[in-house]
């Protein structure tokens, strides 16, 4: 099924007709004859959308909207109310009560199904974002939303020949938003890239539909909210607009208050989805980076090494792998405390990062050990880079606090080059670099040692290698 819809209507004929139409489109349909029965059915079946008559025997459609909202876990259950005739004042009342839209009898089947698809698609997308946000919070990777609400940027784009009517008046009263009129050319040339909400007013030739497709396909505008406004005779264009990605629409005459209400609801919804998306991205970033140094961690570095190796296998160009370790780090921790140890780690990480190229990857491999991946780098260059990093750390002692002398710190480095030989995994490269690092330690520390990949060094040892305390 494509979704569960609860049909609420006191007239049995209306319920049967809707059930047949929705069932033919493979929707799962539940029915109720009154508002009270609808509330019970909503608790029992957990519908994805409610399609209800605006007048029921025991309550109005607006009251049903208000009473349905607390029953949805995320308070986002979409409701469409069906009016006996098109009534702008009744539509405004329904929107204020929380309905997504109203439709007038006789129902336009094409517009009805376009509206259902649009609402269910938007609800599923937001539900997925909320699920990921909840997962991030459970893992401690998400932050609470900021109380600060930035001003929204609203662009009014009118197609040639469009009738403004009450549009400008309704948009003029928007709270916490800046309204600007712009042309199709402005949008196509990127001058509306920072827009939060586009209000596209259709003209006689369907130009706004073409622009809607452009807005949805361009990276700098595809996440903007879109309100599509059509004339009474443009219902097919309105249905197409929903399928092309319009978030809401107005057909025919509308009170200025309705336009204000719809646009403010769209801006609020966009703020929520922007926050959820940012939270998800921050959670992904947190999962792949070391919180102390800000460097990537092994979870990111090892798949990155696989990608670099695959590219090198195709191109035939070598790349370097370094394993770096802070010398006598356990002595620093034991003698000065973990706070100083953390300070040394972050300082060394910063120096290493500043002395690598933008294409190079520096990751904290664990403890006081770092992994460096150097694309398009041969054996001599790799060893030279390793020696340079050792020198940069050696040259300047680490400042560890007022009243204490700077602390001399050195690192040791093991170097090797890829791509991995036939039959070997990239873990063998890490094992070889780790073996060279051990040789550098044995030779007196504060130096770099290079090696070739040795088949007897298994990937398992490389992946499980722990930080050294020497």
From TrEMBL:
Reactions this protein catalyses: 2 GTP = 3',3'-c-di-GMP + 2 diphosphate
Record GO terms (molecular function): diguanylate cyclase activity
UniProt-listed InterPro entries: CheY-like_superfamily, Diguanylate_Cyclase, GGDEF_dom, Nucleotide_cyclase, Rev_trsase/Diguanyl_cyclase, Sig_transdc_resp-reg_receiver
Start and end residues of each GGDEF domain: 317-453
Biological process terms in GO annotation: phosphorelay signal transduction system
Documented EC number(s): 2.7.7.65
Pfam families named in the record: GGDEF, Response_reg
PANTHER family, per the entry: DIGUANYLATE CYCLASE DGCM-RELATED, REGULATORY COMPONENTS OF SENSORY TRANSDUCTION SYSTEM
NCBIfam families assigned to the protein according to its UniProt record, in alphabetical order: GGDEF (TIGR00254)
Protein name: diguanylate cyclase
UniProt lineage: Bacteria, Pseudomonadati, Pseudomonadota, Alphaproteobacteria, Rhodobacterales
């Amino acid at each position: 099924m494509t979704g569960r819809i609860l049909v609420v209507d006191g007239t049995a004929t209306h319920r049967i007709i809707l059930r047949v139409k929705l069932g033919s489109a493979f929707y799962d349909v539940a029915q109720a004859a009154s508002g009270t029965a609808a509330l019970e059915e909503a608790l029992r079946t957990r519908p994805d959308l409610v399609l209800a008559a605006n007048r029921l025997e025991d309550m109005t459609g607006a009251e049903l909207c208000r009473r349905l909202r607390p029953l949805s876990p995320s308070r986002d259950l979409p409701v469409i109310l069906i009016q006996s005739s098109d009534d702008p004042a009744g539509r405004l009342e329904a929107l204020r009560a929380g309905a997504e839209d109203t439709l007038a009898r006789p129902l336009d089947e094409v517009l009805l199904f376009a509206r259902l698809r649009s609402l269910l698609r938007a609800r599923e997308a937001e539900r997925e974002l909320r699920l990921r946000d909840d997962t991030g919070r459970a893992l401690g990777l998400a932050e609470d939303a900021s109380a600060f609400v930035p001003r929204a940027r609203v662009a009014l784009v009118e197609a040639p020949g469009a009738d403004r009517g009450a549009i400008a008046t309704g948009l003029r009263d928007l709270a916490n938003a800046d309204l600007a009129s712009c042309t199709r050319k402005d949008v196509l040339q990127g001058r509306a890239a920072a827009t939060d909400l586009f209000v596209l007013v259709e003209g006689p030739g369907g130009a706004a539909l073409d622009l809607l497709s452009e807005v949805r396909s361009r990276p700098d505008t595809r996440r903007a909210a879109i309100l599509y406004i059509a004339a009474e005779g443009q219902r097919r264009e309105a249905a197409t607009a929903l399928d092309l990605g319009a978030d809401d629409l107005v057909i025919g005459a509308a009170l200025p208050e309705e336009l204000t209400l719809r646009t403010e609801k769209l801006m609020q919804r966009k703020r929520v989805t922007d926050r959820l998306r940012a939270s998800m991205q921050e959670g992904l970033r947190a999962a792949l980076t070391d919180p102390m140094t800000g460097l990537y961690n092994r979870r990111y570095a090892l798949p990155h090494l696989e990608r670099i190796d695959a590219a090198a296998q195709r191109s035939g160009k070598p790349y370097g792998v370094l394993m770096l370790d802070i010398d006598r780090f356990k002595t620093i921790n034991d003698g000065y405390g973990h706070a100083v140890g953390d300070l040394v780690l972050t300082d060394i990480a910063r120096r290493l990062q500043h002395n690598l190229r933008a294409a190079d990857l520096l990751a904290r491999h664990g403890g006081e050990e770092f992994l460096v991946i150097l694309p398009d780098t041969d054996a001599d260059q790799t060893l030279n880079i390793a020696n340079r990093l050792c020198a940069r750390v050696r040259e300047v002692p680490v400042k560890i606090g007022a009243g204490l002398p700077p602390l001399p710190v050195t690192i040791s480095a093991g170097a090797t080059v890829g791509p991995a030989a036939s039959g070997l995994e990239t873990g063998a490269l890490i094992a070889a670099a780790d073996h060279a690092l051990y040789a550098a330690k044995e030779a007196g520390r504060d130096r770099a040692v290079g090696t070739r990949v040795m088949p007897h060094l298994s990937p398992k040892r490389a992946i499980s290698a722990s930080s050294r305390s020497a």
